[in-house]
Amino acid sequence: xxxxxxxxxxxxxxxxxxxxxxxxxxxxxxxxxxxxxxxxxxxxxxxxxxxxxxxxxxxxxxxxxxxxxxxxxxxxxxxxxxxxxxxxxxxxxxxxxxxxxxxxxxxxxxxxxxxxxxxxxxxxxxxxxxxxxxxxxxxxxxxxxxxxxxxxxxxxxxxxxxxxxxxxxxxxxxxxxxxxxxxxxxxxxxxxxxxxxxxxxxxxxxxxxxxxxxxxxxxxxxxxxxxxxxxxxxxxxxxxxxxxxxxxxxxxxxxxxxxxxxxxxxxxxxxxxxxxxxxxxxxxxxxxxxxxxxxxxxxxxxxxxxxxxxxxxxxxxxxxxxxxxxxxxxxxxxxxxxxxxxxxxxxxxxxxxxxx
Length: 356
Prior knowledge:
By secondary structure, this protein is of the alpha+beta class. It has helices at residues 5-15, 28-37, 42-55, 135-139, 142-154, 166-175, 210-218, 225-244, 252-259, 269-273, 276-279, 314-328; strands at 76-83, 97-106, 111-117, 122-125, 130-133, 160-164, 179-183, 187-189, 199-201, 204-208, 263-265, 286-291, 294-300, 306-312. 35% of the residues lie in helices and 22% in strands. The radius of gyration is 19 Å and the shape is globular.
């Protein structure tokens, strides 16, 4: 990742006009903890099963598949939704999605493609009937509305979802005794309790605890949502690497405890167990990260104020859609996004944006 002077200056200027909440998330370590628990003890297996069953929350929605997929036999997609919520913030039912990643799994290659979708992406939200920031999909209908929006955006089926919050992120990293990752620049950031400048990091490769990793995932002091998405992808890969290491086996019990009420998913425990072949790929697990090109867009709202959006590049969007379809082995077609949607800026924000 490079940070030339012009990029830094441009994104500092953009930061003064863009005030948004920020969040990141994890998903593979959660699967690893449940799957790997079975490898070394019935107690942990039963503990993982109990926790995973408590997080199981199937949605009443119509599948885009003619036949439901089975992770143990089929390629499948998983939408990971990171919400700007925690015990400190009261677990609001109208929280926004501050990070979205779509993962596609290919059973033959034992590979994963991981797409980051910027939270301010200007997209058509089917439930609302107009275009808005994709983060507002979750605030206006939760995971179902978010899933429907991403399905339409990428013209492919979302088979499963996984939703996590701040607390899960911090506690799982702490349970693993931190992660090793490159910090691109020195910065100060607030912590999960919204205390200003509570976290101070220097540039360089280092071990971060949960609060520090969250700060790295949240900050945009010298870059943008796009770079932030790339950092989040690197954090995910660092967590996977740490969770899959031999030294972490004894920590799975603590990781299981960290999940608790901080996650919900429509993957059953048996379906998670079927992903053992991915989890045990360990250091050789192939995770390819993808990002959609785009540009800044400012549109007036009903009050005449300029609102920032991220305008996705149609060609880049279609290329990535086709890559994911090929990875899922469902063929490639033109995007539904090529249809003409209402382009007028709509209404007001769900709530005034703040720094986080």
